[in-house]
Amino acid sequence: MEYELIRSGRKTLALTIDKSGKLIVRAPYKFPQSRIEEFIKEKSEWIEKHSAAASERTEQKNERLALPPSELPLFGKLSTVSHEKPYGYIGGCIHLPENMTLEALLPYLRKLYGAIAKETLVPRTYAAAERMGFEVTAVRINSAKTRWGSCSAQKSVNLSRMLIAADPELIDYVIVHELCHTVHMDHSPDFWALVGRYIPDFKERREALKAVQKTISEYGLDK
């Protein structure tokens, strides 16, 4: 079985399957190669199952990218795409050219999602900060792919443009999370207690964001 081996200062073996279905093995520097091979054999059933699933997701994604999009993730739903002119985000609907593939449209969609995020998330964050009594110096939209948001020591909040793919309740969790960082610049118990004061079910919402990230990836919007 082919795999990529990454050695580091870690203390245990770990297996992961990347988006394409490739097996990645992480091992301590001096861990015996023979034991690595044994471990892979022991986990062969798990590897085959998850590798096949990842390969299937990649195939489905490639098929979707090769076709014009009929719907796109927006505010927690798959929003139907309109082909009426003018193109853009109009009246709560995304308008796109009819005969362009999703892959060809991705550069435009990234800009469009950024514009929608700026239009909706920035005022939503300022309104939440005022309502909660928190001070923010700025709210910006960025192109982060692995972080929904961040907050600087200067109390400047950054939100990923892809956050608009999430349900409004999940968006509010991310906003509150970052606003709470204006008080606690860490993830200490005090920080989570503050988040919980405003979002009692924050653990469930945080978990639900994983599905949003998956959907974004399925539409190639995380490229």
Would you spell out the secondary-structure blueprint of this structure?
Blueprint (H helix, E strand, L loop, with lengths): L3 E5 L5 E4 L5 E6 L4 H10 L1 H22 L5 E4 L2 E4 L7 E3 L2 E3 L6 H31 L5 E5 L6 E3 L4 E5 L7 H13 L8 H10 L3 H17 L5
Parallel strand pairs: 1-3, 8-10
Antiparallel strand pairs: 2-3, 4-5, 6-7, 9-10
Helix pairs in contact: 3-4, 4-5, 4-6
Count the beta strands.
Answer: 10
Radius of gyration over all CA atoms, rounded: 21 Å
Fourth-tier CATH superfamily name of the largest domain? Metalloproteases ("zincins"), catalytic domain
Overall structural class, as computed from helix and strand content, comes to alpha/beta
What does this structure look like?
The chain is of the alpha/beta class. The chain folds into two domains: 4-65, no CATH class; 113-218, Zincin-like, CATH 3.30.2010. Helix content is 46%, strand content 19%. It has six helices and ten strands, in the order βββααββββαβββααα. The protein has helices spanning 33-42, 44-65, 102-132, 168-180, 189-198, 202-218, and strands spanning 4-8, 14-17, 23-28, 71-74, 77-80, 88-90, 93-95, 138-142, 149-151, 156-160. It is flat, with a radius of gyration of 21 Å. The mean pLDDT is 94.
